[in-house]
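Researcher: Please predict.
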Amino acid sequence: MLGNFQQSQLRIEIEASEEDIRESLLDPTELERWLWPARLDRGLPDRLTVGTQFKTHIGPIAIAHEVEVADSQGLRLLLSEGIDGFHEWYWGDGWIQSRLEGVSLLPLNLGQTMNLLRLREFLSAKQRSRSH
């Protein structure tokens, strides 16, 4: 694989319940809503479970994912193609943590930061819509 080895770990506070965060990461429909502009493969199950395989596409770049862990407080994805490595997510009430390691030509820290900010905004909008 061409590229540089990169690693990044970010943790942010987020105004959302553990359940809302979990659904936003394990439900492919929810995942695709906030992960924009990335597109997910069609035909995914209603929930990501161990062994689920899919690709995200960011323009011409495809990133293959295989779910290695999917439980009530964590998700671990093995990555290949555009990124050769892994992405771990952990969460609880009011926080989310993301750890990304891999070899890639893509700027992983920038992408990870943007994803966390999009997720926070998505969950905030969800909270606002419930309170109206």
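Model: The longest helix spans residues 108-131.
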